[in-house]
Protein: Carboxylic ester hydrolase
Organism: Hyaloscypha bicolor E
Amino acid sequence: MFVLSLCFFAHFVLGSTPQPFPPHLANFSTACSEFEPLKYVSNATLNVHEFVAAGTTLHFPGTDPSCGTANQTVSVDICRIALNISTSDRSGIIFESWLPRTWTGRLLATGNGGIDGCIKYDDINYGNKNGFSAVGSNNGHNGTGGSAFLHNPEVLKDYIYRSLHTITEGGKNLTTAFYSAPANNSYYLGCSGGGRQGIKAAEMFPEDFNGIVVGAPAVNFNNMTSWRASFFGKTGASTSPNFIPASAWQGFIHDAVLKQCDAIDGAVDGIIEDPTLCDFRPEELICSSGQNSTKCLNEAQVEIVRSVLSPLYGSSGELVFPAMQPGSEVQAVQGLYSGTPFPYSLDWFRYVVYNSSTFDDTHFSVSDITAAQALNPYNVQTYPSNLSNFTGTHKGKLLIFHGQQDEKITSFSTERFYNHLASGMELHSSQIDDFFRYFRISGMFHCSSGPGAWMIGQSGSGSMSFYPETNILAAMVQWVEEGIAPDTILGVKFVNDSVAKGLERSRRHCRFPYRNTYIGGNASLQRSWECMLYE
Ligand SMILES: *[C@@H]1O[C@H](CO)[C@@H](O)[C@H](O)[C@H]1NC(C)=O
Ligand SMILES: *[C@@H]1O[C@H](CO)[C@@H](O)[C@H](O)[C@H]1NC(C)=O
Ligand SMILES: *[C@@H]1O[C@H](CO)[C@@H](O)[C@H](O)[C@H]1NC(C)=O
Ligand SMILES: *[C@@H]1O[C@H](CO)[C@@H](O)[C@H](O)[C@H]1NC(C)=O
Ligand SMILES: *[C@@H]1O[C@H](CO)[C@@H](O)[C@H](O)[C@H]1NC(C)=O
Ligand SMILES: *[C@@H]1O[C@H](CO)[C@@H](O)[C@H](O)[C@H]1NC(C)=O
Ligand SMILES: *[C@@H]1O[C@H](CO)[C@@H](O)[C@H](O)[C@H]1NC(C)=O
Ligand SMILES: *[C@@H]1O[C@H](CO)[C@@H](O)[C@H](O)[C@H]1NC(C)=O
Ligand SMILES: *[C@@H]1O[C@H](CO)[C@@H](O)[C@H](O)[C@H]1NC(C)=O
Ligand SMILES: *[C@@H]1O[C@H](CO)[C@@H](O)[C@H](O)[C@H]1NC(C)=O
Ligand SMILES: *[C@@H]1O[C@H](CO)[C@@H](O)[C@H](O)[C@H]1NC(C)=O
Ligand SMILES: *[C@@H]1O[C@H](CO)[C@@H](O)[C@H](O)[C@H]1NC(C)=O
């Protein structure tokens, strides 16, 4: 079975007939050096202009070390254009446009993450490798922090929507000029903060993309930022007496979550297919008298677990953000449950909401929620209830995926967004299916990795092939260009995430509201599961 699953990874590439070469690109390196990019992008200056041969490792010495992207090995021959684009007298974008020798007529714009300004070179290369002309940017500032936002609304504007729109336009201009033909279709790929960028583009610039693929979108941004900031107050500092250590979350608490909820989908395999069905009861972990406390909780700690896994409510009891899904504790101990302020939220409150680098969220309260919501710069909130300009007039398609063990943005938020859009557009899920599908990726952490079949083509490192059945970006291309929508996405997981060690599991992930259900046989095989609709 594994052999059978593996064989289609080897060769199939969507749109595998490369287009005839435009004659002027026959000598690609010459065509690259003779190209004049500054003619096609406004307000730009040149940083880099070079032909890069396949296999070359590019180095980015100027990149902020917090981004952790010092180099990128390029998979195919490209013409690399890096520009500075000025967006105002107080802001600018570092822009990369990589034009591959073998072009399929497609453009791919890539997003960022968190509140960061880190270029995803890996995603740009992933696009090139599959024939896209690809663009990315630093989203208007460098590094993972938010200090560049302080007293600079122009930098904020770039981050919230202007940078992506500008690079998409710039990328289209360069693509048209370089290949002497416009891109036939343009796509977007981004996760987390990059997910929010994609939804914002659908909302504000419905003509920018034909297909938008986003993971774990940071929509409902102000409320999500508050939700993240609220954990520190719930867990207490790591030095506080009832602080629950990582070993407890990762050990007996996670075990108890699995014991209560793993079998709901029919298979006990360490993966909860639908965490919305998991109503975890931590009280069973209260220490009995004389029990070794490394395996149980006191009453105050049980309350902490309960509160950490509860939704965030506002001053009048209204829902601010849904609960963290149970199952994600193994990874959440490194961030939200770590007993330290969550950096992205801290910086947002410091540099955007309060303009004060001394703000600290030790005493985070509902007044902070209100302040973040009231400011809502450039509608960063990103919670559209009607995307019909994108999906109707422009026939745009939207695919969202969300890991069901996401430790940074609860997947319950995406389900809520789906329902919000469905009710805002007055559509049933069978109608929403015409332009928007949401895939719940069981056993996947934030954007990638995890014990589940998490490789679904969401990034270069998360893809084995460019086959629509197994690759969410290829599925989008097929949907846009051939009208065939994906019903499932087949994900894979390799032993220790090493291809050489062999396949550990494969599973077809279902589109919401279908639910993956075990129907018998070896649970690590895709054929042992079926997508079912429960009313
Ligand atoms: C491409 O052009 C360059 C510079 O004119 C030249 O050195 C090179 O040999 C050419 N390559 C091919 C394959 O014609
Ligand atoms: C793209 O080209 C158009 C037409 O030349 C120009 O008006 C526009 O400013 C360009 N876009 C960018 C981002 O440079
Ligand atoms: C590009 O812009 C940055 C500021 O965003 C500036 O520091 C750098 O010098 C610029 N580079 C060029 C070549 O203009
Ligand atoms: C951002 O990084 C680029 C290099 O990628 C550098 O040229 C630029 O000066 C940096 N900008 C700021 C404001 O530090
Ligand atoms: C690329 O950067 C990584 C660290 O991010 C480093 O481990 C690796 O050695 C670098 N590769 C090259 C070829 O410089
Ligand atoms: C170019 O920059 C100026 C001022 O910095 C700005 O007003 C204008 O909109 C920019 N043009 C484009 C196409 O972005
Ligand atoms: C773009 O679409 C046109 C018309 O369908 C087609 O002729 C052309 O081959 C496509 N270009 C590429 C590069 O695929
Ligand atoms: C509790 O269990 C831990 C680890 O299993 C052990 O190291 C410790 O000595 C035990 N404490 C008591 C009081 O039994
Ligand atoms: C965001 O939080 C506010 C409370 O500050 C609440 O009124 C609003 O409904 C929330 N929005 C969403 C989409 O959750
Ligand atoms: C922070 O600055 C922004 C403008 O940059 C302003 O809109 C906001 O009201 C300021 N916040 C506070 C708390 O002063
Ligand atoms: C659709 O676009 C029109 C024209 O730009 C705009 O007036 C309208 O508000 C948009 N509708 C939505 C739901 O965004
Ligand atoms: C959604 O927006 C479109 C375009 O603005 C509008 O025509 C339509 O009536 C809206 N749908 C609903 C249910 O409000």
Observations:
- The longest strand covers residues 78-88.
- Residues 458 and 472 are 6 Å apart (CA to CA).
- Residues 62-63, 94, 142 surround 2-acetamido-2-deoxy-beta-D-glucopyranose (ligand 4) (CB under 6 Å).
- Confidence is low (pLDDT under 50) at residues 1-13.
